Amino acid sequence: VHRSTGRAGAQSRGEAMEVQDAQKAELVDLLSGDAGSLLDALMAYVPIGLTIAQTPDVRIVRVSDAGSALLAKPRTELEQITVEEHSDAYRVYNPVTGTVAAPEQLPLTRATLEGETVVNEEWLLRSDAGRDVTILCNAGPIRNPVGEVIGGLIAWADISERNELEKQLTEALATRDRLVAELYHRIANHLQIVSAVVRADARAAASVEDLVQKVQERISALGRAYSAFRGAPEAVPAAAFLNDICEPLQTTAQRIEVQAEAGVQISATAAPIIGIVVNEAVCNAIKHAFPQDEPGCVAVSIKAEDGHT
Questions:
Q1: What does the alpha-carbon distance between residue 100 and residue 126 come to, in Å, rounded to a whole number?
Q2: Pairwise CA distance, residues 83 & 86, whole Å
Q3: Rg (alpha carbons) of the chain, rounded to whole number
Q4: What is the pTM assigned to this prediction?
């Protein structure tokens, strides 16, 4: 009985080997037959990595030129290797754990041995220089006319640049949201300041026309202060800022000279308040210092003391 079972087992193994050899021959015929010239062109010119493996050991039989270039390795080092050697030869790493990928986890292995179709799966390739390249993998089985899996194909593309651009976009959107929130907060604070100033003006105004003029001056000064921060910088040079505030206030008779110490900056937070104060001071100076519209000069200066403006 034991001898009979042994002969039967040997016969089964022999039949399995014959099936495997036949499948290998099928894949070889497929790659070198009438479609061989088309395959050669695809492997030479398609700008993504393509790898073809055969059953039963997932031996790699072809690698595209683009795949070889991305890995910076000749095809001789990437072809004719079995599944146990894939991770080391291709330096494939798990993108989550950062560990070397187990052979059975690889998309090409799963497609070749299990007939699985793998869609848009990310893995890492690590160059000899230590640079990680994120690749997007799609894999599937190659079947013969009767549906048996005789090999597998994987297509993989470098998406490192795309991922970096997506990261930069995400960071830019977060920065934009932060700046918008900060802008809303500043506007609310500045409008409260303007409201308080207008209430004070209303109590001191001699007439409605006088009040309207003062409100208009406050709003104009606030608008010019905001205009100085186009492009959303955190601070602007004091000289440029004060010139923006004072230039519209000059008349044909009175000129305004701005003197700003080099290096002094006006912050975005302080700008509206300083703009309103300077606007008020210059308007009062022109109005009261030159009652008969006499020619003259109003000097506006700013400097830093003890590190503060």
A1: 10
A2: 5
A3: 38
A4: 0.56
